[in-house]
Design goal:
heterodimer, A: mainly alpha, 17 helices, 2 strands, globular, B: mainly alpha, transmembrane transporter activity (chain A), transmembrane helix (chain A)
C-alpha cells in the first residue's frame, strides 16, 4: 500500500488525527502551555520506551487477527511474559547479584513460556473451536490469578524483588546523528529491536509469499486451502507469534524498562495488552501504523512525567488515566475497521 | 455454545469446573503444597461452619447479582466486560447519596430504610448510565464494546479513587476511605449473625434474578433483546432498531451491575474506599454467567458454586500458606473450558459417555 493509497483509504483517520492535533495546539495556546518544554528529545525517548511493550504486542496481535484468529488474550500473555521474565532472571541470578546475562536469560524464558502457553491457546481456539473472545478473556483471568500466585510461591509476595534494567547500547557512529541518534542508537536495545521488528513485520506481511498466506488465511481460507496451503498451520504460526511477542512485551515491561514484576491490582501490565489491540486497529492492521499508534499511547502514558517537568499540576491519579481515555477517543474516531473476513470462524478442511 | 441442549450445557459446566479444580490441584501439588489438604480446606472454608456458610452466601449474593448483569448483555449478544466498572460507579453513587442525605433525614429505622432505598436507586441509575456509554459507542461509532468497557473499568476506578481520596476522606484519615455510614443504615442480621452478610441481601439478589428472568422471557423488551442477540436480521425485520437495542441492553445490564454495587456498599462495606482494592466480582461474574449458559436462573447455582470457591479460597489464604490468588486462576480456567465445549464433546465421544454427535 503506497502512502497515497493509505491517505485515500483513511481520510477519516487522518482527518481525526489532524483535528486532534489542532485541538491540542489550540489548548496549548489558550492555556499558554510551554510546548517547547513538552516536546523535547527526552519526551521522544520516553514515549518510545513506553511504546515498546505496546508495539510488540500490537504487531503480534495484528498477525494473529490477519490470519483469522482474534487473540484478545494479549493482556494475559503480557502478564505471563512479565512474570516469567522476572522469574527467569531471578532464578538465573541465584544468590548472586543480578547481572546483564541474567536479564537476557529472563527474556528468553519469557518468550519460551509465552510461546508454550499461546500454543495451548491456539490448540483450543483452532483445533477445539473455542469462542475466541471468551477464551481470550479467560487467558487474562488466568494471568491475573496465576501471575501473582506464582510470584507468591517464588518470592512470598505478589511482586518480585527489584531487578535492574537492561543496559543501553550505543551504536558507534549512528549515535552521533542528531535527535534520532540519541533516541534510537543510544537507547535500550529492545527499543531498537522493536523498531526493526515493525519494519520487518511490514515487509513480511505485504511483500512476501508468507505474508500473503497470512492475509489469505484470514480473508479467504477456502482459496488458500485450494492453493494447497494448510490454513490451520498458518494460523497456528501467526497465533504463536502473537503470543511470543506479547510475552516479550511483558518482559520489556518487567526488566527492560521497569524494575521487576508487580502483581498488585491488575498487575503492572495495567491494560497495555488491550491498548495494543486498539493500536493495531488504529493502525488499520498495518505494522507500521500499529507502531505509530503505540507511540501515541506511549506519549500519553508519559504525559505525567512531562507535566511534572514543566510544572503543570494535575493529580497523578487523573493523568494516569489519559491512555485509557485516549483509547476510547481513538476507538470512537476509527469506528468501523474492516476486520478480515474470516476472523472468529474456525476452518475445517473437507476430508 | 448456543447450540447445546440443557443437559449438555449442564454436563459441560460440571466437567469444566471439575477439570479446572483438578488442574488447580495439580498446580498446588507442583508448587510443593499438599493437594488433598488444599481441596479439603477449600470445602471446609466454603461450607464447614455457619460463619463459613454465611461468607459463602455473601460472596454468592454479589456473584449472582453481577452474574445476572453479565448474562443480560451476553444473552443479547453484547459483551459487557464493564460490570466491574458499573459496580464501582453504582456503589459510589450509593455512598455519596447516603452520606449526603443522612443529615437531612430522620435517624433510626425509617431514615435508614429511606437512605438505603434512595442509595440503591442512585446506584441503579448510575450503573445504567455508565453502561449506556459503551452502548452508545458501540451503536453509533462502532467501537468494540469488549475494549471500551475494559477501558471504562480502569477509568471508573481511577476517577472514583480520586474523588474519594481528594474530597470524601475525613480530615486526618490515613486511608482513602469515606466516613462510615450511620449505624442505622444496615441490613438487619437475620438467620446468620454476620456483620457483612444478611439474608436481605441474598433476597434482593434472588428477587433481581426473578425480575430479570421475567423481563427476558415474558416481555416484548426481553424478546427483542434475545432475538437480536441470536437473529439480528429477524429482529430487524420485526421492527427492532438494532442500535437502540444495543444501548438498551447495556443500560439494563449496567442497572443490575449498579444494584450489585449498592449491595456491596451497604451490606459489606458500610463506607466507601479505593475501588482498586475491591474484589473483582465483575470479572468472576463473567465465569458465573458463562457457566450458567447466560441463563438468568442458571446464574443462581453458578453464583453459589463460585461463592463457595471464593470463600474456600479466602479461607485457604488464612489457614494454609497457599496463596488465595490460585482460586482466581482456577476461575479463569473454568472460563477457558466453558468456552471450549468442543473439547468435552470430543472427550465424550472418545470415551463413549454420551455425546451422540453434534
Amino acid at each position: 500500500m503506497s502512502v497515497v493509497d493509505y491517505a485515500a483509504r483513511n481520510r477519516l483517520r487522518i482527518g481525526g488525527t489532524a483535528v486532534a492535533l489542532v485541538a491540542l495546539a489550540a489548548l496549548a495556546t489558550v492555556f499558554d502551555l510551554p510546548v517547547a518544554d513538552l516536546l523535547t528529545v527526552g519526551t521522544a525517548e520516553r514515549a518510545l520506551r513506553a511504546a515498546t511493550p505496546i508495539a510488540l504486542a500490537a504487531i503480534g496481535g495484528l498477525y494473529a487477527e490477519k490470519s483469522g484468529v482474534f487473540n484478545i488474550g494479549l493482556e494475559g500473555f503480557m502478564i505471563f511474559g512479565a512474570l516469567s521474565a522476572a522469574a527467569g532472571t531471578w532464578l538465573a541470578a541465584g544468590s548472586g547479584s543480578v547481572g546483564q546475562t541474567d536479564l537476557w536469560i529472563g527474556i528468553v524464558v519469557a518468550i519460551a513460556v509465552s510461546t508454550l502457553l499461546t500454543l495451548l491457546f491456539a490448540v483450543l481456539t483452532i483445533r477445539y473451536e473455542a469462542d475466541q473472545i471468551v477464551a481470550g478473556l479467560a487467558v487474562w483471568f488466568i494471568g491475573l490469578g496465576f501471575g501473582p500466585f506464582t510470584a507468591t510461591v517464588l518470592w512470598g509476595g505478589v511482586s518480585s524483588p527489584t531487578l535492574p534494567n537492561i543496559d543501553n547500547v550505543t551504536v558507534p557512529l549512528l549515535a552521533e546523528i542528531p535527535v534520532l541518534g540519541r533516541v534510537l542508537f543510544d537507547a535500550s536495545p529492545l527499543v531498537l529491536f522493536t523498531v526493526l521488528l515493525a519494519v520487518a513485520a511490514w515487509v513480511v506481511l505485504y511483500r512476501t509469499k508468507y505474508g500473503y498466506w497470512v492475509q489469505a488465511a484470514g480473508e479467504n481460507p477456502e482459496a488458500l486451502d485450494t492453493a494447497g496451503v494448510n490454513v490451520n498451520r498458518v494460523r497456528y504460526a501467526a497465533v504463536v507469534f502473537s503470543g511470543a511477542l506479547a510475552g516479550l512485551g511483558g518482559a520489556v515491561l518487567a526488566i527492560g524498562i521497569g524494575s521487576g514484576f508487580t502483581g498488585t491490582g491488575v498487575t503492572m501490565v495495567d491494560g497495555r495488552g488491550w491498548i495494543a489491540i486498539v493500536a493495531y486497529l488504529f493502525g488499520n492492521y498495518n505494522p507500521l501504523g500499529a507502531f505509530g499508534a503505540s507511540l501515541l499511547f506511549g506519549a500519553t502514558d508519559m504525559l505525567q512525567v512531562q507535566f511534572q517537568t514543566v510544572g503543570i499540576s494535575l493529580p497523578g491519579s487523573i493523568v494516569g488515566l489519559f491512555p485509557y481515555v485516549a483509547v476510547l477517543v481513538v476507538l470512537n474516531l476509527v469506528g468501523y475497521t474492516r476486520v478480515p473476513a474470516a476472523v472468529g470462524e474456525s476452518y475445517d478442511t473437507e476430508e | 455454545m448456543l447450540r447445546a441442549s440443557v443437559v449438555e450445557r449442564f454436563a459441560i459446566a460440571v466437567a469444566a469446573t471439575l477439570l479446572a479444580l483438578l488442574l488447580g490441584s495439580v498446580v498446588v501439588a507442583a508448587s510443593g503444597y499438599d493437594a488433598v489438604e488444599f481441596v479439603s480446606s477449600l470445602l471446609y472454608g466454603a461450607f464447614g461452619s455457619t460463619s463459613n456458610v454465611a461468607f459463602t452466601l455473601r460472596q454468592s449474593t454479589m456473584l449472582v447479582l453481577a452474574g445476572v448483569a453479565v448474562a443480560v448483555a451476553f444473552r443479547a449478544g453484547v459483551f459487557n466486560i464493564g460490570v466491574q466498572g458499573q459496580f464501582v460507579v453504582g456503589g459510589f453513587a450509593t455512598a455519596v447519596t447516603i452520606l449526603f442525605l443522612a443529615p437531612m433525614l430522620p435517624e433510626g429505622t425509617v431514615g435508614g430504610v429511606l437512605l438505603m432505598v434512595l442509595g440503591t436507586l442512585a446506584a441503579i441509575l448510575a450503573g445504567g448510565a455508565y453502561a449506556a456509554l459503551p452502548g452508545l459507542m458501540k451503536a453509533y461509532a462502532d467501537a468494540n464494546e469488549v475494549i471500551t468497557t475494559i477501558m471504562l473499568n480502569f477509568i471508573a476506578s481511577g476517577v472514583v479513587f480520586f474523588i474519594v481520596d481528594r474530597y470524601l476522606r475525613p480530615a486526618g484519615a490515613s486511608a482513602p476511605n469515606t466516613e462510615n455510614f450511620p449505624e442505622y443504615v444496615a441490613f438487619p442480621s437475620l438467620v446468620f449473625d454476620s456483620a457483612s452478610f444478611s439474608v436481605v441481601g441474598l433476597g434482593v439478589a434472588l428477587a433481581t434474578v426473578l425480575v430479570v428472568y421475567v423481563v427476558m422471557a415474558r416481555t416484548r423488551f426481553g424478546y427483542d433483546l434475545v432475538t437480536s442477540g441470536h437473529q439480528e436480521p429477524a429482529a430487524a425485520y420485526s421492527g427492532v432498531d438494532p442500535k437502540r437495542n444495543v444501548v438498551a441492553t447495556m443500560t439494563f445490564s449496567g442497572m443490575v451491575a449498579g444494584l450489585a454495587g449498592a449491595m456491596f456498599t451497604i451490606m459489606i462495606l458500610g463506607y466507601y474506599s479505593d475501588p482498586s482494592t475491591f474484589p473483582r466480582f465483575g470479572f468472576d461474574a463473567i465465569a458465573v454467567s458463562l457457566l450458567a449458559a447466560n441463563n438468568p436462573l442458571g446464574v443462581v447455582p453458578a453464583g453459589i458454586l463460585f461463592g463457595g470457591l471464593d470463600a474456600g479460597g479466602q479461607y485457604i489464604g488464612f489457614t494454609l500458606d497457599v496463596p488465595p490468588e490460585l482460586v482466581d486462576g482456577v476461575v479463569g480456567l473454568v472460563v477457558l473450558f466453558v468456552a471450549t465445549p468442543e473439547l468435552f464433546r470430543m472427550a465424550a465421544r472418545r470415551t463413549g459417555l454420551g455425546g451422540d454427535g453434534r
